[in-house]
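Now for a chain:

_____
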Amino acid sequence: MFRTSLLLLVVFTITVPVAAGDNYRVATFQADVTPPLGSLLYVKPLATVEHPLLAKGIILEAGDERYVLCAVDWCVMLGPTHAMFRQKAAAAAGTDVKNVAIQCVHQHTSPPHDGGAQELLDQQKNPPSYRSMEQLEEITDRLAVAVKKALDGFQPFDTVGTGQAKVDRVAAIRRVITEDGTLLTRWSACTDPALRAMPEGPIDPWLKTVTLAQGEKPIVRMHYYATHPQSFYRDGRASYDFPGIARQRLQEEEGVFQIYFTGCSGDVTAGKYNDGTPEARAELAERLFAGMKASAESTRFAPVGKIAWRSVPLQFVARTDGDRNPEKARTILEDPLAAPDARINAASTLACIARLAKPIDVSCLTLGPARILCLPGEPMVAYQRFAQQARPDEFVAVAGYGLASTGYICTEEVFQQGGYEPSASNVVPESEQVLKDAIRRALGAE
């Protein structure tokens, strides 16, 4: 049985807004975060690098405060892995870790990294090979160097631009429910003509762009769109996939630094329009690029007005049913004769339960007319629509895939329906209301 007692911590960390026009500066940074060849990627060792995996972000300075937003071309980061990225970025930027949001883009041609599982494996006899914490130290050191170097390149900005455009034939709902109530799964790559012919479903078709500028001269653009960013994968190849291809193409064309954040995509994929071929990836990249360009071209600028950062710690309750039973997981982890994958999964289960015992930050950066909401885990697209409805008269951009120890964050309805996503969730079904309350508070829409 699930534990049903839920605790929401309502203590805020709120930065007092700086007076309009006072010392607003921004710097951009980029670091190569590609693991070494031979290290575990998604399901296979890294054999070749098609595209370097990048961490791209901004350091925002408002008076005496600094904030960091960063999108990393990794699949997911759990426990100490996510903490290490945040801590090193914060130290390099000269700010508090609560002022740093690290989000994954979530390509599956990149690492899912669970430092907590590795720490537990390191304590065992004859542990299976999994992740290298030494490599993680080296990769996050490269990020810290890039962030620190960026401090020499601050530029003043006085306007914030907001734009949006519908993206054509990229995203579609993964959970397809037929007329007779049957639940079907339309994976990121789909070759079933009948499944591909079914409607897109309740996605968020809008790509949103936030631009920081001097007047109307852009310095950096940040794009937000909700879909799993997978075309073809599981082949030992590092790639930033079609979102990275579109992102880098627009950067080259505009001469403006571009960052791409994946929104709430737990139940959204490109499977309706993707058969898993390189040709399909090229088409997805082309259509996403067109959406990004149209969103950028629709930008309307307004004075910054104010900058504020609000951080809300919330407490999820971990699932401990079935295979997530901690005693069962501990027995498997400590058995040197158990299958390597079983021991790794057991270590990950225990690490997630331990991490979920602590609060998780939900943060919102107010930039003049825009609010940028940064969420943990892999939320359903319903949470993105909920956030926008909580502030219907404002421009709300949402990034998912922060700390991933939650796994999928489903709605209660999805838990009742069953299927893949609930099976991959590490939190109880009652978490829907907990996350929605945190979203309202982070947006200042109590």
Q: What stands out?
A: Residues 278-297 form the longest helix (20 residues).
